Amino acid sequence: MTGGSPFLKTFPKHLLLIVLVPMWCACGANTERRGVPPEVQTEITTLGDDLAVERYEKIYNEASDLWRQDSDLEHSAAMLKTLREKLGTVKSRTLHTAIEQENSGGPLKGRSFTITYQTNFERGEGMETFTLVERDGRWRLARYRVNSTELK
């Protein structure tokens, strides 16, 4: 017994792949990467350097509008200072995930990267997550989160 669509029986299979594969690839808005692009890594390195020497006002002023909408300078500096007091400075980071997104709407509209590291701090370890958005051709901090048992 033969079944299936008469269209699929007469449609060349290689043409079907040519049509379906690009459609399948285009559906994913999130792309997990093995690495971080140099311009994004440079921004994370700069942020790390600024955190290490407590340049909280610089971090706030150079962050994206999303960061500044979530908190004012005082709250932002207090949060970053608390993280430093409890965990100390970063000793090492190992890339865990890097996810690139292209969003047509919402708070992260446009191109963004969310990079998560397994991070060793002076007084503990945890997962450190940076979310950066591309604005005016430059990567800017939108969110920063640290998850560690040392923060409880």
Give a written overview of the molecule.
The radius of gyration is 21 Å and the shape is globular. Helix 4 (56-62) crosses helix 6. By secondary structure, the protein is of the alpha+beta class. The chain has six helices and five strands, in the order ααβααααββββ. Residues 14-28 have low confidence and may be disordered.
Short description:
By secondary structure, this protein is of the alpha+beta class.
Task: Give the tags.
152 residues; alpha+beta; 41% helix; globular
What topology does this entry show?
Blueprint: H1 6-10, H2 13-27, E1 30-33, H3 38-52, H4 56-62, H5 65-70, H6 73-87, E2 90-103, E3 110-121, E4 124-135, E5 138-147
Antiparallel strand pairs: 1-2, 2-3, 3-4, 4-5
Helix pairs in contact: 4-6
Could you estimate the helical fraction of the residues in percent? 40-55%
| Overall residue-averaged pLDDT value | 85
Low-confidence stretches: 14-28
**Spatial arrangement of strands, main beta sheet:** 1-2-3-4-5
Tell me what portion of residues adopts beta-strand conformation. Answer: 25-35%
Distance between the termini: 65 Å
Largest sheet features:
5 strands, antiparallel
Number of helices: 6
Number of DSSP E strands: 5
